[in-house]
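Renewal narrative, Specific Aim 1. Our central claim is that a sequence can be written position by position from structural information alone. The example that follows is taken directly from our test logs and has not been curated for this report. It begins with the structure tokens describing the chain, in the order in which they were read.
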């Protein structure tokens, strides 16, 4: 229970710090983008900076209380999740850096529990990279015109919307393969694999909704489908391990 509470604290604090850093890094861009123009009104810049420092410090403390390895790796983990916010200024591969930022989570949780890094979280991390890059490509279609006009880099700007949506499909196919491989290396059983068709169906729904290219469809694809995939994956792993 102690480990669970500390891992949850690390997750919340790191994600909040990353969102605050992203907001500060994109402060002027968000004001010029019609989709995000209201974000800077939620809190002042000085408030965001103070909360960023507070959340970062809290993350370091929580990670240090887990074990020595997580404490030592905490600055690296936070640097990775912060770095994503800068990548759109110099590389079209920004979607993969976002995936890497989220892939830190399974690796960190595994180290928190075991004190070491093994093959299963690396395989799962690869799946997370493909998953996040895929749905971020879908989400980025909303900002195609703005990003192109501002000179910001993304694969959507480079390849266009249609080809980017096709690439997202391939990335999610890779994510599905990684989830199957994770079940093998983590020695999971029938309950886990029985949930895979549900995840495949959610991914299919996500891409079908995204093809409409309307805000409502993209939000359904981005929020509802991803929340469903996360919940099904967690339940499947828990149920299979509990059964064993």
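The sequence written for that structure reads:
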């Amino acid at each position: 229970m102690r480990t669970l509470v500390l891992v949850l604290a690390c997750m919340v604090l790191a994600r909040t710090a990353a969102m605050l850093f992203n907001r500060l890094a994109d402060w002027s861009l968000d004001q010029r983008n019609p989709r995000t123009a209201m974000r800077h009104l939620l809190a002042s810049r000085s408030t965001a900076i103070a909360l960023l420092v507070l959340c970062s410090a809290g993350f370091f403390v929580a990670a240090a209380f887990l074990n020595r390895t997580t404490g030592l790796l905490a600055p690296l983990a936070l640097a990775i999740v912060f770095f994503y916010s800068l990548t759109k200024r110099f590389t079209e591969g920004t979607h993969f850096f976002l995936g890497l930022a989220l892939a830190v989570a399974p690796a960190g949780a595994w180290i928190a529990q075991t004190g070491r890094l093994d093959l299963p979280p690396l395989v799962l991390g690869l799946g997370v990279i493909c998953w996040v890059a895929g749905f971020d490509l879908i989400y980025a279609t909303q900002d195609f015109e703005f990003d192109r006009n501002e000179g910001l880099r993304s694969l959507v700007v480079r390849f266009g919307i249609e080809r980017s949506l096709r690439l997202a499909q391939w990335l999610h196919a890779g994510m599905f393969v990684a989830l199957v491989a994770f079940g093998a290396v983590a020695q999971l059983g029938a309950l886990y694999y029985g949930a895979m068709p549900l995840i495949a169906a959610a991914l299919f729904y996500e891409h079908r909704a995204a093809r409409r290219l309307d805000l409502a469809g993209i939000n359904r694809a981005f929020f509802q489908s991803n929340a469903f995939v996360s919940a099904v994956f967690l339940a499947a792993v828990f149920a299979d391990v509990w059964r064993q």
